[in-house]
Amino acid sequence: MAYLFVLPFVVVFLIFSVYPVLRTLQLSFANYKGYGEIEFTGLKNYLRVFQDKFFWRALWNTVKIWGVNIVLQLSLAFLLTIVFSDIKYKIKGLSFFRAVYYLPNIIAATSVAFLFKTLLDWRYGTINQILLKVGVTNPIDWLGQTSTAPIVISLIQTWMWFGNSFIMLMAGVQGINTDYFEAAAIDGAGRWKRFFKITLPLLRPILLYVTITSLIGGLQMFDLPYLMGTVDGQPFGSTQTVIMYLYKYGFAMRPKQVGYASAIAYVLFLLILIISIIQFKVMNGKED
Amino acid sequence: MAKKIYTVIIYLLLGILAVSCMVPFLLMLVNATRSGNEIMSSFTLIPGDSLKENWDAVWSYFNLFLGMWNSLKVAIPATLLTSYFSALTAYALAVYKFKGKKVIFYTIVVFMMIPGQLSLIGFYNLVSSLRLTDSYIPLIIPAIAAPGTVFFLRQYLLSVLPMSLLEAARIDGAKEISIFHKIVLPIMLPGIATMAIGGFIGNWNSYLVPLILLNSPKKFTLPVMVASLNASQDIATNQGAIYLAVAISVIPVMIAFCFCSKYIISSISAGSVKE
User: Fold this and answer.
1) With an 8 Å Cβ cutoff, is B33 touching chain A?
2) Ordered domains of chain B (ranges, CATH)
3) Domain segments of chain A as ranges
4) CB contact under 8 A, B257 and A106
5) Is some CB atom of chain A closer than 8 A to the CB atom of B213?
6) For position B273, what pLDDT does the model report?
């Protein structure tokens, strides 16, 4: 009976999850245009990935855009968590603020991309019009300069995701027994001490969960930079992420270089795996 | 006194942050009612009177309501399949003892960690060799196997389901499948709803997979349709129409969010605080 119950899951899982992952692995050792013959070439694609400076540039872009975003996102989420979990000043309206802060996250990244692309337009965008009104002399080409475009994308990511992190951290804090805080307060521990000695250590598992899921999601960033900077990551490739690079070789290019794109996917996976393990070790290791 | 000032400052900052979350949408709504020339020449928060013209421009370019309908045709069946089959699988994993159970469970855990890009190319390759590109089938059927949802529901079931209830039903001679449908499913409903909301939003907003699979514009889901704005030259010169197109794609989600933000937020909280 149990077999009958798990059968649909297992069949679909094998066909649409397990097989594609293995197929990508197989293709990563081959030369394949997406049609015609599959010619196996051993480790050639992998060697090419390691020598491809545009791959490393895309990786560095991705890490940079994600890194700025995660620092801002977590800082903001932490500040909010401290504010709303303070036992002395009982700040009200948690469910209202939580909902408003989460709002940008529920909107499709495609819509968010067009909204900001239009608002940030160099000549006619509303943001520059506001800046000119308050005394900035020259309009800023937000999406046209390598110095601003990646940061703009980081900031939009932060805007989209800080509410999500805040909700997760807050859920963690609400799971902490309030007796701890009260006992610490009676013993004379101040707000910051309570935060660093009680809240932070108890939140560590959730923090780990938030950063690892954000890392896995962040290194796969595609929708926003793709729509704001096209497949080549304008300006000058500064917003091209790894998945955009993979998309270019695996889907956009004619003829496609499917094997090379597959190797990119596996190199990225190995990097994510290594970083996650390090992250896990570092954050869990502090205990002893 | 100091406490009062502190409280006021905190509320002020929280308010500013809240406004910054909403202002882009506000600008979007205002600009959707202004003509392209008005938007280019100056900024204002007073709505204009070009809504009709913008509407006509958007409508002549594409039918966003068709996009919404297409998105619903994918997101609703996918969410239902994920909910039902994940519940069934989670039930089998939580309650029965059988050979291979451990293998299935650990494979699920491993696949939860594997990023989607790893299967992307193989998936497309599979779908095109099955001649299923430009169809909704590869967007819907894979939803039957959702490892994350199965994992969550299994944990959920272990914490809420009293085993004695199952024993009692078996003694009464109930069939296993009807025990699942009549007893277990209702008990699991809050957990299923939590996962279904998150799954629906994910499906509704999904862009990359529909982008690579769908070719004919009349089959485009809403995000793919909105993204095709990029290719259009005549609409790109009319910012009012772009704002309106984005607004049409955003407003239904916002309305839905007003009604069920509570459930959405509890579904995120549930995801982070695992037993």
Assistant:
1) no
2) 63-231 (1.10.3720.10)
3) 55-248
4) yes
5) no
6) 58
- CATH number belonging to the domain at A55-248, selected among 3.40.50.2000, 3.40.718.10, 1.10.3720.10, 1.10.10.10: 1.10.3720.10
List the single residue in B with minimal CA-CA distance to A164: B268
Does any CB of chain A come closer than 8 Å to the CB of residue B37? no
| pLDDT tens digits in sequence order for chain B, 275 residues long | 788 888 899 999 999 999 999 999 999 999 999 988 888 888 888 888 889 999 998 888 889 999 999 999 999 999 999 999 999 999 999 999 999 899 999 998 888 878 888 899 999 999 999 999 999 999 999 999 999 899 989 988 988 888 888 888 889 888 889 999 999 999 999 889 888 888 898 899 999 999 999 999 999 999 999 988 876 665 667 888 889 999 998 998 888 888 888 888 877 777 665 43
The predicted structure's pLDDT at residue B156: 87
- Residue B263's H or E segment, with its range, is helix B239-272
Helices A149-174 and A53-85: crossing angle in degrees, nearest 10, is 40
B interface test, pick of A111, A127, A203, A207 with most B CB neighbours within 10 Å: A111
Partner A, chain B 193-212, Cβ-Cβ below 8 Å: 201, 204-205, 207-208, 212
Which residues are registered as beta bridge partners of A31?
A: A39
What pTM, to 2 d.p., does this model score?
0.90
Judge: B257–A220 Cβ closer than 8 Å, yes or no: no
Given CB atoms, is B220 within the 8 Å cutoff of chain A?
no
Q: Alpha-carbon distance A197 to A194, whole Å?
A: 5
- Pairing state of beta strands A30-31 and A39-40? antiparallel
Output Rg (C-alpha) for chain B, integer angstroms.
24
- Cα–Cα distance for residue pair B32/B57, rounded to 1 Å: 11
Question: What pLDDT, on a 0 to 100 scale, did the predictor assign at position B232?
Answer: 63
Binary contact (B273, A24; C-beta < 8 A) = no
- Residue numbers of A between 192 and 231 with CB closer than 8 Å to B: 206, 209-210, 216, 219-220, 222-223, 227, 230
Confidence of residue A266 (pLDDT cuts 50, 70, 90): very high
Residue A236 corresponds to which tokens in the numbers above? 């000058």
Binding-face residues of B in 41-80 toward A, CB within 8 A = 42-43
Give the residue from A247, A250, A227 showing the smallest Cα distance to A108: A227
Please say whether the beta carbons of B94 and B86 come within 8 A. Answer: no
Nearest-CA distance B11 → chain A (Å): 8
Decide if pLDDT at A131 tops 80.
Answer: yes
- Check CB contact under 8 Å for B261 and A223: no
Whether A5 has its CB under 8 Å from any CB of chain B: the answer is: yes
B50 CB burial (10 A radius; 0-12, 13-18, 19+): buried
